[in-house]
Amino acid sequence: MNPPTSTVRRPWYRSRTVRRFLRNRLAVVALMIVVTYLLTALLVFGGMITLDDTEARVSAGSIPALFQPQPPEKRLEDCQFWLDELKKALDQTDAKAALGDVQFGAVDVASLPLPELRETHEQARRLDQSLAGYADLNDAPEAATKLVELEELVAQLFPLPEGLGAVQRFIELSLGTDRQGRSIALRATYSIMVAVQIGLVTAVLSVVIGGLLGGAAGYFGSWVDGGVTWLYTTFSSIPYLVLLVLIAYMFIGTVFDGTLFPVYVAFCATFWIGPCRTIRGETLKIKQLEYVQAARSMGFSQLHTMVRHVLPNTTHLMLVGFSLNFIAAIKAEVILTFLGLGVKKGPSWGIMIAQSGSEVVNGFFSQIAAATIFMFGLVLAFNILSDALQDVFDPKHV
Amino acid sequence: MEPILSVRNLTTSFKTDDGVVTAVDRVSFDLMPGEFLGLVGESGCGKTVCSKSIMRLLPEYTSFFSKESEILLDGENLAFAHERVMRKVRGNRIGMIFQEPMTALNPVFTVGWQIEEALKYHTDLKGRLRRERAVEMLRLVGIPNPEQRVGEYPHQLSGGMRQRVVIAIALCCEPDILIADEPTTALDVTIQAQILRLMEDLRKKTGTAILLITHDLGVVAQVCERVMVMYGGQIVEQAGVNDLFHRPQHPYTKALLESIPRAGKKQPGKRLPAIGGIVPSLFELPPGCRFHDRCPIGQQVCIDQPPPLEEKPQAPGRLVRCHFPLDEEHRAERRPA
Amino acid sequence: MWAYSIRRLLYNVPVFLGILLFVMGALRVNDPIYGFLGKNASEEEYKAFQEKAGLDKPFWLQYAIFVKGVITFDFSTESWDQPGLSVGERLRRAIGPSLSITIPALILSTAVSVVVGLVSAYFRGQGLDRTLVFIAVLGMSISFLVYIILGQYFGAYVPNRYFNREVFSIHGYDGWSQLNLPVDWAYYCLLPVVISVVVSMGYDTRYYRAVMVEETGRDYMITAQAKGASKPKVMFVHMLKNAMIPIITRVAITLPFLITGSILLETYFGIPGMGQTLISAVNAKDFPVVQAFTAVFAALYILTNILTDVLYALVDPRIRLA
Asked: Which of the listed residues A138, A269, B261, C277 has the most CB atoms within 10 Å of its CB?
């Protein structure tokens, strides 16, 4: 069966490739998800959430996500947290200034006169102590009313903000807090930017390096090909995590330690191999085609022919390589971070997941769930996207 | 004489990304016992789909037959037969030869193993007897030194040898029908002639009816008794080989015949005529007669009404799908294509 | 056959030398002695240490010594972090625990993935196939670390806490000596093995499905069917033997990932295998151990590569006689 032959030139957005892609509804959804992630990353990059926001305590520690009801013990504990924080400030010599510094995300200390604050605090303390008398808070009905009373007092001391502040507060607590009382929602969102940054830098650099080396190897052949083949066989013969570890080790104690630079170097050193291999193969094929021979016979230089006539025809492979490496980088970040060699400053999904290991044992799942789901969304969308790309460019690929 | 295989209204369609396409459209023919029948057409006209349909070798989930399709073998309709029934038919009642001898054999099994496999499914032969039968088959298809060849792998054989092995596999269970799908296309001309002669010999020896599918009219002329010409998924002409070659009725057949170079018929300065236009895509079949836009004598009625495949009064015993079948006068004059 | 194997061996020699060169070079970018002794080490301390470790020799000589050591299995260099233990001794202790997880994981994941891939290819385009492919993509989108954390939780903590039963151990495994019965192996190693299998299944299944689907389109499949072979027979006899080459390739490719996985698993489960030893050596700046272990990892990988080539020849008659 011959495909319908038409000589009409269509604009690129109506080309067969794009139409094939758009027909895959799942891939279009995935593309939209990826774009949403990228936009979020851009907003974070633009200052929507700062590093300080992610490090700041917004509430008591280990509050579960989605405002789930909590056992009375935990509620009492949370009240104690707020009272302790207030006490710390009240005990300062310059209590007024100290109170001004107390802030938990969108929540401030109530703007009451100092004596009134002290009075309410004392009242709450007494309630707290009386509650300590109960062996089991679940059994005593009067304990429950006392707990509600205590919570109301705490709410007087730390009133919920209104308007925009209320929205901010809602977002801060929506996914709960980690053990240090930091907002999981903010940290997970900030990590989108970290992940996108690592993914983009790694994917772009590795595809460029791999593409150039692979293209040169395929195009020039002889010793260039020998050298590049040897190089990638060598690199791919070192298990990739060992290679990552080795490169991360190279940077321990240098000025780059603590930055993302070692991570980029390690990832690029590992991930250039895939695109290099495929592009070398494709170049070998393209080199035989007439139009390349024609370009050569017209007197263009080797380099010009390669860059202008051969490499552009491997764009689809670069695109696929890009999306594969993007995913690989994001996933490798988690592993490297867990081993203590990856992201060291600020939050990242790797740091969150690594941290949540000890929380899961205690039955606290909010952090691992948040980090996993955020990452899952991006990686899944990219996986579907790269499948769709491979389908579009190479229908025989399955 | 009763036909051994009778195909009626065979319509095979495929589900594709771009919608449903019908590759074979209401094809009907009879195959007589011991007959050598040819099926000719350009590539993409549906010949191979037709042969695979008879064997039910098309992908299960993307292809389907129309309800009225019938492939009658011993009164049973194979088009809708159970897979179990088909397994008894394939290799046993109907053997098949393929176009690409280089890839048709499984590269990781020996030639002997592959012949024996067919014997295993359809005969009671076991062990040494089965191996002997495989050697005998290799000898029958003219492979020298069969005792040694039987233990070799396909890549150790030449293309012609491999095609002989494929024929041996197809014939080892003595089928009533052999479907040969472009059996000589991938071979050198000398080997082609050998393979054709082999098929002709085997047909005489075993009485197997052969359905030969090819795009090569020369091949048809050498061996076939009766020929069907296929175009755009339909049969457009059916006739005895002599009638067809000397008195083609369908303009397409005529054009096909004219596009073969002939020895001894010198026409200096004249170019070999080619058929204008291209084979229609099955996705965009023209209305009416499928050949009308390439036809030198096409008229308005050809666009409005699809012609039926029928016997014309002036030419009994043969079928043609044309509103204006060619007669002697038409054949004599040459029209610009 | 022998000539072929030896040719493959020779082909890998420059690759191996290259790896050693890279490993040694990478480890010297950042002075390993200052790394270990700290930035404030005095000149004399530094000199003494350098001489003891043989790092004062020119690079090419160190290289030659190291290559000789690896080739003759001479790992008598002393570990910096654990004085008194040679690198070889640490390697010997680590290899058992590693293999008791890696090998079963490799066998199990390959077997399961091949079967799932075959089933998926068999039902190509149907509901079951689509579901399997989608699950594989879902599975690939979750981090290895999450699998480990949740695996430990559901495998060890949940039975412990809610059923008061210790099904799997998550620490305390340190080698063959504990494995007297198969049950012991399951107690210590089954959980990490299962996690490892689950993680690799997404990738493997998709790959094997692609291989099988590619093979389904081959002419010999039609020939076999035209002979009257049933579909399962065609798939399991004709196709599987042809698919052995991509399967073997895949196994060889999976190996470094298994090592990767074992680094994570060992670290998390506290199994003193090669991966964990390497990571703790990196953290302790134990230069000779890092150097030797990376070299051994690479050597193992290259050996499996050669083994792969030889297996190809066994499976495919075309290579055997080439």
From this structure: C277
In contact, B24 and B7? CB cutoff 8 Å = no
Q: CA of B58 to nearest chain A CA: how many angstroms apart?
A: 15
Segment A164-170 mean pLDDT: 90
Please state, in angstroms and as integers, the Cα–Cα distance from residue C9 to each residue in A8, A56, A135, B276, C247, following that order: 55, 58, 73, 59, 21
Backbone angles phi, psi at A321, to 5 degrees: -60, -40
The verdict on a CB contact (< 8 Å) between C297 and A356 is: no
Q: Helix C274-283 and helix C87-122: axis angle, to 10°?
A: 120
Q: CA of B99: which chain C residue's CA is closest?
A: C219
Closest CA to C283 of C267, C262, C301: C267
Whether the CB of A46 is below 8 Å from some CB of chain B: the reply is: no
Contact A100, A78 (CB under 8 A): no
pLDDT for the residue numbered B263: 62
Q: What residues of chain B, 275 to 294, have a C-beta less than 8 Å from chain A?
A: 278-279, 281-284
Residue B107 with chain C: CB contacts under 8 Å = 220, 242, 316-318
Residues in A touching C144 (Cβ below 8 Å): 331, 334-335
Report residue A49 as tokens. 């959430």
- Residues of chain A positioned with their CB less than 8 A from the CB of C34: 253
Contacts of B129 (CB under 8 A, 6+ apart): none
Residue A40 has pLDDT above 90, yes or no: yes
| CA dist list (Å): B285 to B152, B254, B307, C21 | 47, 21, 15, 65
Mapped onto helix, strand or coil, the DSSP state of residue B15 is strand
Which of C:42-101 have CB within 8 Å of A? none
φ, ψ for residue C78, nearest 5 deg: -85, 140
Among residues C19, C46, C36, C72, the alpha carbon closest in space to that of C289 is found at C36
- Cβ of C219 within 8 Å of Cβ of B100? The answer is yes
Please tell me what DSSP assigns to residue A108: E
DSSP H stretches of helix in chain C: 2-28, 32-37, 43-53, 59-71, 87-122, 127-140, 144-152, 158-162, 182-185, 191-216, 219-226, 231-233, 240-269, 274-283, 287-315, 317-320
> By the 8 A CB rule, do A183 and A177 touch?
yes
Question: Is the CB of residue B96 less than 8 Å from the CB of residue B66?
Answer: no
Contact B17/A at CB under 8 A: yes
Alpha-carbon gap, residue B248 to B241, rounded angstroms: 10
Tokens describing residue A256: 């780059």
Q: Tell me how far apart the alpha carbons of residues B96 and B179 are, in angstroms, rounded to a whole number.
A: 5
Residue B49 touches chain A, beta carbons under 8 Å: no
* ipTM for this model: 0.85
How many alpha carbons lie under 13 Å from residue C159 in its C-beta half-sphere?
Answer: 12
Paired strand residues for B65:
B12
Residue A41 has pLDDT above 90, yes or no: yes
Q: Return the SS3 of B337.
A: coil
Helices (H) and strands (E) in chain A, counts: 18, 2
Asked whether C166 and C159 are in contact (CB, 8 A), the reply is yes
Which residues are paired to B312 by β-bridges? B315
C283 contacts in A (CB within 8 Å)?
Answer: 340
Q: C57-104, pLDDT tens digit by residue? A: 888 998 998 888 888 888 888 888 888 888 888 888 888 888 888 888
Query: CA B312 to CA A322: how far, in whole Å?
Result: 65
Q: Is the dihedral of CA C111, C115, C121, C127 positive or negative?
A: negative
pLDDT on residue A351: 92
Give the whole-angstrom CA distance, residue B314 versus residue B328.
Answer: 11
Q: What residues of chain C lie within 8 A of the CB of A383, using their CB?
A: 137, 140-141
CB C223 within 8 A of CB B166: yes
